[in-house]
Amino acid sequence: MSAAQNPLKFAWLEVTGLCNESCDHCYADSSPKGTHGTMTAQDWKGTIDQLAAMGADDVQFIGGEPTLYPHLRELITHAHGAGLGIEVFSNLTHVRESLWETFKACGVKLATSYYSDTAADHDKVTRLRGSHKRTRANVAKALDLGIPLRGGVVAVNQEQRVKEAAQDLLTLGVETVGGDRTRAFGRASKGAAPTIADLCGHCAHEKCAIGPAGDVWPCVLGRFLTIGNVLDAPLSEIWGGARMAEVLADITAVHGGGVQSCTPPQFLPMCGPCGPCVPSVGHCDPKEANSAPTTATISAPALSR
Asked: pTM for the full model?
């Protein structure tokens, strides 16, 4: 599929692998031991410029925990100046006052994961004492500042208060709350090698992810399918190039041309909401519609499109 047939509209920018939390289900295997990688702030700016030149609409800054990346304000301002819509996916435990100012000035939207209405339950997932208190307080602050925010409740533990967590966010005033099940990537895989069958099949459809070392992936979960590196070649050559064609062929061979499952929009703000919405239903895969749900899945709104 050519770049003309499959324009690049959205990119996850994983600016750091460093995170102050150590969640067992982290697909990126982020933790306090993570690093900012080898991409410099100038490298990221150049990549943002390339995305804008290719006609991309939106970027989402992720990690790790993106608010721990020292140049996040600089990159947000640059992306805003390039005309891109911006969302920051953050655990909202570490937001400096200057960042709030940048969020407001650049029209940034926020997304966060939330695990329970109780501190003990939430902090058990994040493995960071006090994370629930800080996240909840910053959810309230974002809403007070008029910053759009969506929340996702990821079902990690069997006894987790998933529905109560979703209700707590709604009570705070978060208008869009969904859920997601744990996906077998990163630490959640328990050491198992990732496979294409574990993906949704929508990878590299109008979107890509770029990691801290410049690797370009078909999505944040498909990081084992590198299609290039922005430190080695322009993004315009990587997107629609020979390696990407190989990866797409491999994905199609597993999922078929008319894949039925939904893209995991916990990580993808360009997705529209699934219906019916969770956590009342507990799945986002149409193939699972007749099966009893065991975990929550998420439905998320689009960015400003």
From this structure: 0.86
